[in-house]
Design goal:
By secondary structure, the chain is of the alpha+beta class. It is built from 13 helices and 10 strands. α3 packs across α10, α4 runs parallel beside α10 and α12 packs across α13. The two termini are 13 Å apart.
Length: 380
């Protein structure tokens, strides 16, 4: 259902007469209610073991290479998958919305980990946020399990400005990993100290793609004693030429980034730290945006905390398998002509093509395009 992007349990149930399912299953397709009920009581460890097995096969086949500097980057971030005013369950978080007329809103939020590698990224695990705890506490609990299951998969753990937190820094450093986070006003003393030093320090210029970066790099900051270690701060002022669609003229876009990290200058040069700071967006672009817009990742198949995590882990597993199939099974010439969405539609077409025909309809022999769709969909 997920890899074919059907979108709901009812859509899956409507295809139960397809010969595709009769060929793969030894019994009838379960109903939508049965699948939702089973998802609410099944364990999550077999799903996590399946995700780990996909990672192990890719790593053993040398399909996952470091992005830069010979270091593997793990990115953690939170995502709100569901919000409603009408339903709640044992795993729902709540908040008060509105000023004059307040209402209680119920929502679900989880922290997901993605491994940034070349030529593609894979999602490793997810942990739901419990009532009464914040995102950092959930991320630390997820990090503990990742360090047990993937002890050598990553070297650096990155996050947004929310993860510039002493609890997160201590948890990462205690497990022999380095951390990287965006530095903003949530650490005002460190930000003020680093900006004051950079204002009187000469900068360097590097080129990153189309952007011209003016960078400053300094180590040994002790302004953040709660982190229990000296940290390194890198600031980058990036200028990019952008051609606006409205007036067809070229304008310069300037953005400033400050990053705090425990990486030493011997382990990672300035350009590597800046690249890691930008690759942190992979969890948004290639993770949450992809699963929500293309894979129905935010759809509530069953409003139950166990079922919601079950379907999210199924989505992670399906996305990893599909990504590995696209980059490792299909030929480069085919990938240049067809997008991943096209391949997914070919997979879906096989299920609907093998539905029984209604009376009065004749089945025509498959043409070259249908044969090609069946070939790649069956392989997937």
């Amino acid at each position: 259902m997920i890899i074919a992007r059907l979108g709901s349990l009812n859509s899956l149930e409507q295809t139960n007469q397809s010969r595709f399912w009769r060929r793969w299953l030894d019994h009838r397709m379960p109903s939508a209610d049965t699948i939702g009920r089973v998802a609410a009581v099944m364990g999550h460890e077999p799903l996590r073991d399946g995700i780990h097995d996909v990672y192990s096969r890719l790593k053993r086949n040398k399909a996952l290479e470091p992005t830069c500097g010979g270091l593997m980057l793990l990115v953690l971030d939170g995502h709100e998958s569901h919000a409603t005013y009408r339903r709640c369950c044992d795993g729902c978080l709540s908040r008060t919305v509105g000023k004059k007329r307040t209402r209680t809103q119920y929502y679900h939020r989880h922290v997901t980990a993605i491994l940034v590698a070349n030529p593609f990224t894979i999602m490793l695990d997810a942990e739901p946020m419990k009532p009464g705890e914040d995102e950092v506490a959930t991320a630390i609990r997820l990090l503990e399990r990742l360090c047990r299951q993937y002890p050598r998969a990553f070297d650096v753990v990155a996050g947004d400005s929310l993860y510039a937190d002493p609890r997160f820094v201590t948890a990462v450093r205690s497990r022999g990993k380095d951390f990287l986070a965006v530095l903003k006003a949530n650490q005002p003393s460190l930000l003020e100290d680093s900006n004051g030093l950079f204002d009187v320090t000469p900068s360097e210029r590097i080129t990153r793609g189309r952007a011209q970066c003016e960078v400053w790099d300094a180590s040994g900051f002790t302004t953040w004693p709660q982190a229990q270690c000296n940290v390194r701060v890198v600031r980058s002022v990036e200028t990019t030429s952008v051609k606006r669609q409205l007036d067809k003229e070229t304008h310069e876009s300037v953005s400033t980034w400050s990053l705090v990290t425990s990486l030493s200058s011997m382990c990672a040069i300035t350009a590597t730290v800046i690249e890691f700071g930008h690759r942190r967006w992979a969890i948004e672009n290639e993770g949450f945006n992809e699963t929500v817009s293309r894979w129905h990742g935010d759809h509530v198949y069953k409003h139950d905390p166990t079922a919601m995590l079950t379907f999210w882990l199924f989505t992670i597993l399906a996305l990893n398998i599909f990504t590995a199939f696209f980059f490792r099974n299909l030929k480069p010439a085919y990938r240049r002509l067809h997008t991943r969405l096209h391949v997914a539609q070919c997979i879906t077409s096989v299920i609907y093509d093998q539905l029984p025909k209604t009376a009065g309809q004749s089945r025509s022999p498959p043409g070259p395009r249908q044969q090609l769709q069946r070939h790649y969909a069956t392989s997937a």
